[in-house]
Amino acid sequence: MPLASDLAPRFAQTDAPLIGALVERWSPRAYDRNAVVAPETVQVMLEAARWAPSANNSQPWRFIVAHRGTPEFTAIHDALMGFNQVWADSAAVLIVNLVETADAEGRERPFAAYDLGQAVAHLSVQAQHLGLHSHQMGGVDRDAVKAAFGLGETLQVLSVIAVGVPGDVDALPEALRERELAPRTRLALDEIVLRSAA
């Protein structure tokens, strides 16, 4: 019964020394369905998101936080699509990531999605630092989430994060278990840095 947390190969094989939370961060699907993440711990993660940079300090991110066992958690889980529904119910917390696409005067915020991405990155690294794992999901019925929570037109659902403690990999269906155990890979730096002038 291998636990996701026991899988040392999940650590990033980096070409430069990085902080521990980045090296150890990965996105499990196997979560311990009995583990609880305290609201105070989630607050710390959200505080990290709050201090992310944003264009003109607009802070266009908003979040819906739901703990396992609540109607809100069920509503978010029910809106997930595909394989996400198979495993995400074992996470301790589901967080909907929302972006405010226009300001109070109706002016478009062209960098809002980029800014939300930075806030979510801060949140996920803080979660890792706290000994938790997170998994980002884009497969979600955005209209269903908006309807379930009565969201206005300027708030757009971008993604959902599952947060929790890694659990038993063998509890996953075969197709997901293979993905959980597969080696982690990234493009080489010379493939993503198009030009670097020193």
Give the secondary structure arrangement, pairings included.
Blueprint: H1 20-24, H2 39-50, E1 61-67, H3 71-79, H4 84-87, E2 93-100, H5 112-129, E3 133-137, H6 142-149, E4 155-164, H7 174-181, H8 189-192
Antiparallel strand pairs: 1-2, 2-4, 3-4
Helix pairs in contact: 2-5
**Major sheet: order of its strands?**
1-2-4-3
Count of beta strands = 4
Give the overall shape. Answer: globular
Number of domains: 1
Subunit organisation of the chains: single chain
- Please give the count of helices: 8
CATH homologous superfamily designation? NADH Oxidase
Walk me through this protein's architecture.
- The structure is a single chain.
- This protein is α+β, with helices and mostly antiparallel strands.
- It has one domain: NADH Oxidase (3-Layer(aba) Sandwich).
- Helices cover 34% and strands 15% of the residues.
- It contains eight helices and four strands, in the order ααβααβαβαβαα.
- It has helices at residues 20-24, 39-50, 71-79, 84-87, 112-129, 142-149, 174-181, 189-192, and strands at residues 61-67, 93-100, 133-137, 155-164.
- A four-stranded antiparallel β-sheet has the order 1-2-4-3, with helices on both faces.
- Helix 2 crosses helix 5 (112-129).
- The model has no long low-confidence stretch (mean pLDDT 93).
